[in-house]
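for the recovery benchmark. tokens below, seq after
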């Protein structure tokens, strides 16, 4: 693990330089909770009532204690005693019922809220441009869908009830004590207030530390997802990957954040806990109460409720403080979720148009990833149905970017792309995507059977059609040799299939879709010669009669293309057939010569 050790000093320096994080306001939380606000209100009212009922047995005991003191007669004591026992027992029973009901309603509201937010997130994520996922990775999605929702769950199902219950217990307790003797109540309230001040001092940097811990948790979460996503690369290159460095850095940052918090508050926290004990209230009550009794200003019976009910009140301070921590975390999570929900979705046309035919027109297309440098500076071309258009050029010329603009992974920043005469932005997403098959180098297979992995191409296709597509893609024999044939379960990496076989599986998917436009990005780049022959046969089957756009590095694979566009720095600098471009002696001819010089020697 030598390579993943991070210097504590470098982290601390970076942290000091960074801007002070701020706690988001309550508004995002209130907006997210709006759909369940009625249930939350009922839950809060029940928690408050339960806290009040929970106080009743103590008040009953206090009243009983007052009743047994002289000068009351034995007969009246018996009456009060039974009444106190009855009321106390009823209070305890009522508290149980109310806690049960509030917990049921709280968990119901929690489930409703999680369902509601998850549905909104899923719907919204489906509308975001794919480019957003590529840029942000799965970490941001995982964080919102699991970590942030877990914080919201903790807040609704636990923290809110704890905070309200604890606050009501303190207020109701002081109310009863004020009814007994207001002077002693002032003393008790002053002690409780000083405890709160101490807590406040101990926790003054709580927001800062909570935000720092949350930021470190986010980094741990993102690095874990990145690690799982790239496990094959990580394994291939041992522990020297940057992913592990990022993970180690995030774990260390979490440890440091926790350590700093504990160190900073070790004295004030210990003092506030010591102070917020029953003994403090007991001491204060005795110090003030006994002289008052001695001077004849207070009855002994009036002191008892302060010893029975009053000294229990400090125990409510800790749950109230813990609840407020939950509220802070919930505010941060709600702000995260809302910022994800407010990401601009791919704009959809109000009245979508249907394309007439499937010729593609790139009309002076420009595109920039960052709004500054143009990845595509000027790209114009017409691709007719039944023809193959190849896009070639040096690395970084913009070939993959062009392929990403067609399915609207990103929208062009200038010019337009039209299919059948209709701007992509005027078509609805379903029509656009169903009009094209995309075969990219990154092969994504779902954790499902082979059949279902092919059927994604056309969800209502019959098993027979799936099988026919597999046959056309030259993969049927391979599938039949798998343990359960077409019912074999595949992993995300297509366990049990070679690179070429997985590629043919995705070609089968594309064949099944019958889409009239086919976009191939480096589809045969990494295959051995045997696989490449099989994949080329499958591709010939897929592309017959379609509007085909091929992005290629190896020029011999596109020699037969109807037109070849040579891209450099985001511009088409040459166009024509293979022979014509060789005759020109330009960039294409030089790339060709560079790729085939070895073969000619
Ligand atoms: N997601 C992205 N964010 C920012 N810039 C990007 C992104 N993807 C590509 N680029 C930049 O856009 C330019 C064109 O990249 P693109 O991947 O389209 O080139 P390419 O011709 O397909 O390259 P290669 O043949 O190496 O795959 C490059 O300068 C690249 O660094």
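predicted aa per position
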């Amino acid at each position: 693990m030598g390579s993943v050790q991070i210097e504590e000093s470098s982290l601390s320096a970076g942290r000091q330089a960074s801007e002070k994080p701020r706690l988001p306001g309550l508004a995002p939380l209130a907006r997210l909770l709006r759909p369940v606000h009625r249930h939350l209100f009922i839950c809060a009212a029940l928690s408050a009532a339960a806290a009040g009922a929970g106080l009743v047995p103590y008040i009953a005991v206090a009243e009983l204690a007052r009743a047994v003191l002289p000068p009351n007669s034995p007969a009246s004591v018996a009456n009060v005693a039974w009444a106190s026992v009855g009321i106390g027992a009823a209070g305890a029973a009522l508290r149980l019922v109310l806690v049960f009901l509030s917990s049921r309603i709280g968990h119901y509201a929690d489930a409703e809220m999680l369902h509601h937010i998850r549905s909104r997130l899923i719907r919204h994520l489906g509308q975001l441009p794919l480019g957003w996922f590529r840029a942000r990775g799965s970490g941001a999605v995982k964080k919102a869908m699991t970590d942030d929702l877990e914080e919201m769950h903790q807040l609704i199902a636990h923290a809110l009830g704890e905070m309200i219950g604890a606050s009501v217990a303190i207020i109701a307790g002081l109310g009863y004590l004020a009814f007994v003797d207001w002077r002693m109540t002032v003393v008790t309230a002053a002690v409780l207030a000083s405890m709160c001040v101490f807590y406040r001092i101990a926790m003054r940097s709580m927001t800062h530390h909570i935000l720092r811990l949350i930021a470190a948790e986010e980094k741990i979460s993102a690095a874990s997802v990145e690690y799982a996503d790239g496990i094959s690369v990580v394994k291939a290159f041992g522990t020297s990957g940057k992913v592990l460095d990022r993970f180690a850095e995030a774990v260390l940052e979490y440890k440091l954040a926790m350590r700093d918090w504990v160190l900073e508050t070790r004295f004030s926290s210990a003092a506030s806990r010591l102070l917020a004990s029953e003994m403090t209230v007991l001491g204060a009550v005795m110090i003030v109460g006994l002289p008052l009794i001695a001077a004849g200003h207070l009855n002994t019976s009036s002191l008892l409720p302060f010893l029975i009910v009053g000294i229990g009140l400090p125990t409510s301070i800790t749950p109230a403080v813990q609840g407020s921590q939950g509220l802070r975390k919930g505010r941060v999570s709600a702000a995260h979720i809302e910022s994800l929900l407010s990401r601009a979705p791919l704009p959809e046309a109000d009245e979508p148009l249907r394309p007439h035919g499937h010729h593609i027109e790139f009309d002076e297309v420009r595109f920039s990833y960052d709004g500054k440098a143009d990845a595509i500076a000027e790209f114009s071309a017409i691709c007719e149905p039944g023809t193959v258009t190849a896009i070639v050029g040096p690395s970084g010329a913009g070939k993959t970017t062009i392929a990403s603009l067609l399915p609207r992974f990103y929208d062009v920043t200038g010019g337009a792309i039209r299919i059948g005469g209709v701007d992509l932005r005027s078509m609805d997403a379903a029509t656009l995507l169903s009009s094209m098959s995309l075969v990219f180098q990154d092969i994504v297979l779902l954790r499902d059977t082979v059949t279902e992995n092919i059927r994604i191409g056309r969800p209502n296709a019959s098993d027979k059609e799936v099988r026919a597509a597999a046959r056309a893609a030259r993969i049927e024999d391979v599938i039949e040799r798998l343990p359960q044939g077409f019912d074999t379960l595949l992993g995300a990496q297509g366990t049990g299939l070679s690179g070429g076989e997985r590629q043919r599986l995705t070609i089968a998917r594309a064949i099944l879709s019958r889409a009239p436009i086919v976009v191939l990005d480096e589809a045969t780049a990494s295959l051995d010669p045997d696989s490449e022959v099989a994949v080329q046969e499958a591709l010939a089957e897929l592309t017959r009669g379609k509007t085909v756009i091929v992005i290629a590095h190896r020029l011999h694979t596109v020699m037969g293309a109807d037109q070849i566009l040579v891209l450099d720095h985001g511009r088409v600098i040459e166009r024509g057939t293979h022979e014509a471009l060789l005759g020109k002696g330009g960039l294409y001819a030089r790339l060709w010569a560079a790729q085939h010089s070895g073969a000619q020697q």
